[in-house]
Amino acid sequence: MLPGSFSVVIEVIGILAMLVRLSYETSCDGRLDGAQCYGPMGGTVFIKLMESASEIYKYDIKHTKSIILSVRKNTILNSIHNRYFFIPSNGTFSISNLSLTDSGDYILERFDSNGQSIEHRTIQLFLEAPVSSVQLVSECLSQGQVKVSCLSEGGDTPQYKWTLGGNILKGSELLSINNQNNIIVLRQNISGYVVCSVWNKVSNLFKEKYTSTCEFVNCTSNGVHISKWVFKKDNTLCDEPLAQKHNIIELLPIIIGSISALGVLLIVLVVSMGIICARRKKAKNKEEEDNRELANANLRRGQQEQSRGTQVEYGKVQKQPRQFNVTLYGCEDNSVYGNVEDSVYANI
Predict the structure, then answer these.
(1) Is the pTM of this model over 0.85?
(2) Distance in angstroms between the alpha carbons of the first and the last residue of the chain
């Protein structure tokens, strides 16, 4: 599909839908005597007269005592207007492009093969102007309520129905409604999609509109003082909100610059803390290493001193004089084997 083709198709569909909607049609069951049917001015009415006309020998349809359509053996013999049409297979009679002269009584008369009348039936046709358009107009009242008016064009004896958010309006939402039912007043703080449906016996149209709450403004716009209730959603009257908006836009570069500077400062702070922590850790490791070396040196010194002490004590033991108590013939004499000098014992 070429670019833009989709939008063109949508537009064509919208136009066709509008044309179909504007070509009003109604249908009616006229199989009972005295049936009342309603047709739209300028539109088409379909009246079902019988289930099937295939077995009926002859029948005529009269309006104001004149035969407007005559059918024999499913063949149309006479039709004074091309606006009249009959479908024998389903027994439906239709009139298109209706005008005021088409209203009144219509008589269906059936005949057998001998030309004898076997049925005489009357149908009443009433014409009404269809509703052609619907508009919704809303405004804020003096106490913040919302007044919504449903304005319709065309249409005989139109009827109105209101909904809010898809539901019928409640008493807690509705402040008042007029006798014609086409103007309502919503209470304060009530908002949502309001739908007004307008219909009569030959047409049915509706219009939807979003209605916001009202707020009171007291400000200056273009040098003019404004003091009234306005719709909150569409309030663009005051200069102050616009000035605030411009100030924010002007301050935006400053805000961005401040955020950037803060980010750089944060990065520098993190890096500095990392360097300080690394240096402290290095100094602590060196101090622990020095303490370990000092402890090892003290340990070696202690071991050496202990070793020297043991050798000195062992030397003293070696140098102790040895005494021998020799008993000769019961006498104790130390003169022969006296004290052995250390030097002699050492030589031995």
Answers:
(1) no
(2) 130
